What we know:
single chain; about 400 residues; alpha+beta; Jelly Rolls; 3 domains; 9-stranded antiparallel β-sheet; 7-stranded antiparallel β-sheet; disordered N terminus; disordered C terminus; binds calcium ion; Lectin_leg; disulfide bond; ConA-like_dom_sf; transmembrane; LMAN1 protein
Amino acid sequence: RSSAKMAAPLAPLVLLLLALGRPALSGAQATEGAAAAPHRRFEYKYSFKGPHLVQADGTVPFWVHTGNAIPSADQIRITTSLKSQKGSVWTKNKSIFEYWEVEVTFRVTGRGRIGADGLAIWFTEEQGLEGPVFGAADKWNGVGIFFDSFDNDGKKNNPGVIVVGNNGKLLYDHQNDGSTQALASCQRDFRNKPYPVRVKITYYQKTLTVLINNGFTPDKEDYEFCAKVEDMVLPSQGYFGISAATGGLADDHDVLSFLTFQLTEPGKEAPTPDAEIPQKDKEKYQEEFEHFQQELDKKKEEFQREHPDVQGQPGKLFELFFTDDVFETVSDRELRQIFEGQNRIHLEIKQLNRQLDMILDEQRKYVSAVTEEIAKRGAVSPGQQGQVNKPHGDS
Ligand SMILES: [Ca+2]
Ligand SMILES: [Ca+2]
């Protein structure tokens, strides 16, 4: 898809490359010249993405999750917006490729003008399953890209994005937001954006580049430059991970997708592709799929029983009901919930108004009845007028 989009402006370049017998390229490297353009291959074992992100047993294929992380069908909530939460998700296996690119889509949302603590994307020699650095382990060997919401050092430069490398010995300088250790950084507000924030991190020929789509547009390719680190040496094999933490203040940290691509220098042979999906996994997926299919059939039958009138073209109807396009996205759902909430409030106000009207009406009736009564009694026995009138004298 991305290469198709790039095709227009890059047509001559692509044609030239095709003439040289190289595949089309994409992303940031394209602009740096044909010589540096890598082969790019999607690595499903180091990736996750909705709408069927989680398996029936609550696990994410090829990933482990820890702490407060909650995977669901279309995202992984690394932390909920409660105090002192920590969570992380890590690839089960070490990558075996030297150069890579990851595209991560996430949302950081909270009610406060200020949130905490932030989210981190990792490539490290070991899984940092638990710890004090945005929910992951300190003294990592590799790199962390931190989306730091909270301004610990009070320099008014958060939310910000910083890149911190570590050789396994350094303790993260949390009090200074890592500023004493940052290899590169950029100031970006990634919280509470209308669209998910997208980040593209490329490690190629010892250069690490961070590009960001700040969530103001739905255009997936609308990246802006954030940071670059040259001559960066990372472990040749490592785990990809993403973690988050909250403090006294708290945001929801939701990751919608984590896509990993292997990059290979042109001319160098790409490593032999991984063998097909292992037989065991295949069977498991097949089972999942069949289970899903059965559930679907059951639902269809139920629906037909309850709605015999639409029996005419059930196929069409179910296509509509059960295709991915019709499932609402997280933001759609939030919008719908807001609308429903407003509707409810509106109805309740209406109801209250009606009740108020009724009470006022009752009161009017009561007052006139009393007045009438007083007038009557006054007429019948003038001697008692003073007594009867007394309690109602002021009304
Ligand atoms: Ca901070
Ligand atoms: Ca700061």
